[in-house]
Every structure is written in C-alpha cells, then in structure tokens.
From TrEMBL:
Keyword Signal among UniProt keywords: yes
Pfam families registered for this protein in UniProt: DUF305 (PF03713)
Keyword Coiled coil attached: no
Signal peptide: 1-25
Organism whose genome encodes this protein: Hymenobacter lucidus
PANTHER family the record matches: SLL0788 PROTEIN
Superkingdom: Bacteria
Name this polypeptide is given: DUF305 domain-containing protein
Swiss-Prot/TrEMBL keywords: Signal
Ranges of residues in domain DUF305: 26-110, 123-200
InterPro entries: DUF305_CopM-like, Ferritin-like
C-alpha cells in the first residue's frame, strides 16, 4: 500500500480507538451513577448544598449530619435489600440503629438551639470541602455491581466525611453537646472503617 494512503488510515484507526475508549469510560461513569448507592450519595449532596446555612458551626453541623446520617441509613437499607453477605448485613443494621439514634439527638438539639454569634463562615467551607472530597473518593472507586462490596467501599468514604466534619466541629464548635456527639462519631466510625476495610480485604 502506498505510504501516502497508509498514514491517513492509521490516523483514522487511532481516532476510532480513542473514541471507543472515551465512550466506554463515559458508559462506565453513567453505569456507576445509575447504581442505587451512588444515587443516594448524589441526592444527599444536592440536599446538603441546598440546605440553608446559619454560619453557626454547632447548628450547621447538626443540620448537615441529619442529612448525612439519613443517607447512610438509606444506603444500609439498600444493603439489607440487595446484599447477600450476612456479615455486611449485620454491619448495615448496626449503622441504621446507631445513626437513627444520633439523628434523634441532632434534631433534639436543633429544636432547642438558636444560631449564635460570632458567626464562623469558614466552617461551612470546610464542610463543603470534606463532602466534595468524599464524592471524589467514591467516584474514583471501581464499582463491582456486587452490593456488599460496593456498600463497604462507599460507606468507608461516607464515614470518613463524617469524621472530617466532626473534627472540624471540634475545632470550631462551642456547644458541649455537639462536641461530645462529634467525638463519639469520630471514635465509632473510625472503628467501623477498620471493620469495613478488613471485610474488603477478605471478600474482594
């Protein structure tokens, strides 16, 4: 074949290969975002972004953690519905029980608390940064379409965001009740992350 013709054909093949690879990556991203667990995470992010901020760290921490915990409960309910591993189902049920109780504590606090001066607007930015980091971590994961594995992976990212926000509350918060709850979340969810990572090591 004439070399003058060979080069355009080669270039065309390269373009076709690149297009196919890009389309495959796009299709995988669409599939990832269509999973029930990822939809729950994305809905949570939309709700948290839309939630009014008072710039009082204690108040905004409690309000955002209600939404954050609610998403963890929904993800855990999906694990109970679609998962098959009994150990992971037990973990999911434990998450539901603990975080429902903590939501009650947050709502009780919010019901009797008025935002206080001085305002701390940087706390809201820290929360936003932590949540964006959580979504980036989840988006970077390879979804296996095995509910038990994907639940464990995404719950690690979800728990880490709760820990990060709780640590920010300890730095900027002023209310003793919220500080105690934030510390309890840090302690408890660090342990749960270790349990989830251990399970993944044994079950990938």
């Amino acid at each position: 074949m004439n070399r003058l013709f060979r080069l355009p054909i080669y270039s065309l093949l390269v373009l076709v290969s690149l297009f196919s690879a890009c389309k495959m990556d796009h299709d995988m991203d669409d599939m990832k975002h269509d999973t029930p667990l990822m939809k729950i995470m994305m809905d949570m992010m939309a709700q948290m972004d839309a939630q009014a901020k008072t710039q009082d760290p204690d108040h905004d921490f409690a309000a955002q953690m209600v939404l954050h915990h609610d998403a963890a409960i929904k993800m855990s309910e999906e694990e109970l519905r679609a998962g098959s591993n009994q150990e992971m189902k037990t973990i999911a049920q434990d998450v539901i029980t603990k975080q429902r109780a903590e939501i009650t504590q947050f709502n009780t606090f919010l019901g009797g608390h008025q935002p206080m001066q001085p305002l701390v607007p940087q706390f809201n930015q820290i929360q936003k940064t932590n949540m964006d980091r959580m979504m980036a971590a989840s988006n970077a994961r390879t979804m296996t379409m095995r509910t038990d594995v994907d639940y464990a992976q995404m719950m690690i990212d979800h728990h880490q965001a709760a820990i990060d926000n709780s640590e920010a509350l300890l730095q900027h918060g002023r209310n003793a009740t919220m500080r105690q709850l934030a510390q309890a979340i840090i302690t408890d969810q660090r342990q749960e992350i270790a349990t989830l990572q251990n399970w993944l090591t044994r079950n990938r």
